[in-house]
Amino acid sequence: MASGYTRERRTRLEALAELLPHHGLVSRMVGTEDPVLWVWHPSTGRQTIIFATPSNRGWLFLWSPGGQGSAEEPELAAAALRQALETAQG
């Protein structure tokens, strides 16, 4: 049975995943106990893994290289993620 922490993480990641197609991104949930969101930009081929984690400011989305966004504002996080995957240097 999943913990409350795992359920909350999955809920946050699912909310972000629902927005990503509107930003031209594709995603897939990976993992069960510690879910993460695998995200890629179909045009550039760039990809990253999104983690959702609690912090003293609420839940955050974290991705590499060095990206983060508030899980309280998933629309802004989705836009920042799109920008990162469009301009990332590979």
Characterization of this structure:
The chain is α+β, with helices and mostly antiparallel strands and 90 residues long. The protein contains 2 helices and 5 strands, in the order αβββββα. The protein has a 5-stranded antiparallel sheet, with helices on one face. The protein is globular, with a radius of gyration of 12 Å. The relative contact order is 0.19.
Which sequence of SSEs, written as H and E, runs from N to C? HEEEEEH
- Helicity, in percent? 25-40%
- Count the E strands: 5
Lateral strand order in the biggest sheet: 1-2-3-4-5
General shape: globular
- Rg value: 12 Å
Q: What is the rounded distance between the termini?
A: 39 Å
Which stretches are poorly predicted, pLDDT < 50 over at least 5 residues?
Answer: none
Mean pLDDT: 91
Q: Count of DSSP helices?
A: 2
Q: Quick summary of this structure?
A:
This protein has 90 residues and is of the alpha+beta class.
What attributes characterize this protein structure?
5 strands, five-stranded antiparallel β-sheet, 90 residues, 2 helices, alpha+beta
